[in-house]
Amino acid sequence: MDKLLDIINEMREEAGNNTIEALASSMDLREDLHLDSLMLAELTVRLEDEFDVDIFEDGIVQTIGEIIVKIEGK
Amino acid sequence: MEKAFLVHNEVVYTYEKLLAVLSNKENYSSYLYVKDNHPYEVFLAIIHSLLFDYPIELLDGDFSEKEIGELGLHVKDVLMITKMAEPSHFIHFDEILQKIQAIEKWHITLYTSGTTGRPKKVSHSFQSITRNVKKHTKLENDVWAYAYNPTHMAGLQVFFQALLNQNTLIYVFGEPMKWVPELIEKYGVTNISATSTFYRNVLPYLQEDIYSTIKRVTFGGEKFDTVLEGKLKSIFPNAKMTNVYASTEAGSLFAAQGDTFEIREEHLQFVKITTEQELCIHESLLRQSNSLVSNDMWFHTGDLIEMIDETHFKFLSRRSDMINVGGYKVNPLEVEHLLIQVPGVIDILVKSKKNSVTGELLVADVIKNDEVDEKELKKEIKQFATTHLQEWKVPRIIKFVDKLPSTRTGKKVRK
Predict the structure, then answer these.
(1) How far is Cα B244 from Cα B222, in angstroms, rounded to an integer?
(2) What is the per-residue pLDDT across B120-177, written as a single tens digit (0 to 9) for each?
(3) Confidence label for B114 from pLDDT (cuts 50, 70 and 90)
C-alpha cells in the first residue's frame, strides 16, 4: 500500500497536484481520486514497471482495494 | 601542405596517399563489409570500384553474420576477394575523375535501413547517386564535417559531393561529441551535413563559441527543427541552412529553406500524395530498385506530408511513427518539437508504451542539462506540455537518459 501511495503521489506531484496523505481500500479510482482514462493508463504503466502486473488486463478495476488484490495475487 | 582527403580518429589521409594506395591495391571485392565502417576503407573501396568499373554492394559493417544471412548472403561470399589483373599507376587526382567519367558497368547497391521489416536492396547508377552533387571551382576548398554512416545514402551523398570537388572530409560520426569544436577549428570546417539528432547532441559543446568558417549547414534524415535552426544560426553566423529530403530509394530529391520543401518542376508529374497524406514517388525517379514499386508504379515513401501549394510541402512524420492514444492519433515529432523548447532539455524522444486502458500512451526519454533537477524538470516538461498540447499528447512518464538510441544512419529509434 505504501508503494502504491508513493506511485500515486509521484503522478500527482509531476502533474502539479497536491499529494495525498493516505490511501484506503475503499477509495474509488475515478470518483475519489479523480483519475481519468489517461491517468489510469499512466497508473497502469507505472504499476506494471514496479510490480510487473497489468492491473487492467482482465477488465475494469474500480478501487484501490482491487489494485492491491491484483498486486498481491500475482 | 598536402591536401587531406580524410581525417579520422586523429589520422590524416592525404590525397597523395590515396592515389598511392589505389595504384598499389592488389585485390578487391565486389562487396564492401568493413568492420566498424572504417571510413577510409569504405571510401577507398568505392573509389576503387569506380576506377576499375565494377559494381559494388555496400553492407553496413554493423550487420551481424545473422543479418547478412537474412539478406540472402553468406559471409564467406561477402568476404571473397579477387586479385587485380595488373597494377595501375595514378599520379594526379584528375586521372581518377576522368576515369570516373567513362564508367559503364559500375553501380552501387545498398540496403534501406528500415527500422521495421527486412532491409530492401536498392541500386544506383553513378548518375542517380550524384544527381544533386554540385561541382564548381568555388567549392574546391570545402572542408566537410562528415557526420553520417558512410555505408548509407546520406553519407554517400556527402562523400560524392566532397570527392568530386576534391574536398577534405573530417569524420565526426560516432566520435565523441566533445571533439567536434576542436576539429572544426583545427581544420577550418566549412560545411556540416547531419541529422537534427546529431546537431542537438553536439550543441552543448559548441554553444560557448562562434564558428565563422562554417558557411553551410545541412539537415537531413529527420523532421526539420526550427528551434534548433535558430540556435545553430547564432553559433554559425555565416552559415546558410538547408534541409534535404532524401531516401535510399530515390537519393536526394527535394531541398528546402526552413521546413518547406520545393518540388522541382521537372519532378512534379512524378510526385503525388495519397488521401492519407502519404508522399508517393513515381518509379522513374528511382533507379534499378527491386521489389519497391507496387503495381501502380508508385513508391509509397511512408512519409506523411502536408502540401502548402502545388509545388511546396512540409514533412509531418513517418507513417510508422504515429501513435494511437485511446483513438487519438499523435505525431510524436510534434510533441518532441515542442518539448525540446523547455529549458534544460537537450534532446527528447517521445514514444509509445502499450497498456490495457488506452492501447498506447506517450512516454518520453529525455537527455537533460546537468544543472537541472530531475524532479523539477519533469514537472516543467509536463506543465509545458499540458499548456500547449491536447491532453492525450502529453507524455505521461518521463525518464532521464544519457543517450538516445539511434539507427545506423543516426536517426532516432522510436520503438
Answers:
(1) 9
(2) 788 898 988 888 889 999 999 999 999 998 998 889 999 999 999 999 999 999 888 8
(3) low
Residue B150's SS3 state is coil
Is A45 within 8 Å of B397 when comparing Cβ atoms? yes
Q: With beta carbons less than 8 A apart as the criterion, state whether B285 and B250 touch.
A: yes
Length of chain B measured in residues? 415
**pLDDT over 60 (residue B290):** no
Q: What is the pLDDT of residue B250?
A: 77
Q: What is the average pLDDT value for chain B, to the nearest integer?
A: 88
pLDDT in tens, B74-90: 888 888 888 988 878 88
Picking from B383, B406, B403, B407, the residue whose alpha carbon sits closest to that of residue B395 is B383
Specify which residues B312 forms β-bridges with. B262, B309
Is some CB atom of chain A closer than 8 A to the CB atom of B325?
yes
pLDDT interval class at B390 (50, 70, 90): confident
A16 touches chain B (CB under 8 A): yes
| Contact by Cβ (8 Å): B107, B135 | no
Q: Which residues pair with B307 in a beta bridge?
A: B313
Q: From the centroid of its chain, how far is CA B209?
A: 26
- Beta strand pairing call for B4-8 and B27-28: unpaired
Please list, residue by residue across B47-66, b when 16 or more beta carbons sit within 10 angstroms of its beta carbon and e when fewer do. bbbbbbebebbbbbbebeee
Q: Are B353 and B333 in contact (CB under 8 A)?
A: no
Question: For residues B373 and A10, what is the distance between their CA atoms, to the nearest angstrom?
Answer: 15
Residues 42-71 of A with CB under 8 A from B: 42, 44-46, 48, 54, 56-57
With contact defined as beta carbons under 8 Å apart, do B283 and B295 qualify? no
Banded pLDDT at B115 (limits 50, 70, 90): very low
pLDDT digits (tens, 9 = 90+) for B183-225: 999 999 999 999 887 898 788 889 889 999 999 999 887 777 7
C-alpha cell, B199: 546537431
Cα–Cα dist B367/B75, whole Å? 38
Q: How many CB atoms lie within 10 A of CB B275?
A: 5
Q: CB neighbours of B266 closer than 8 A, spacing ≥ 6?
A: none
Closest by CA position to A56, among listed B176, B357, B275, B270: B357
**CA atoms of B218 and B95, how far apart (whole Å):** 30
Q: Do A44 and B355 touch (CB under 8 A)?
A: yes
Task: Look at residue B407 in the predicted model and tell me its pLDDT.
Answer: 72
* Phi and psi at residue B244, to the nearest 5°: -120, 135
**Side chain identity, residue B104:** E
Read out DSSP for B220-236? ESS---HHHHHHHHHHS
Q: Do A16 and B382 touch (CB under 8 A)?
A: yes
The residue length of chain A stands at 74
In the 8-state DSSP scheme, what is residue B138?
G
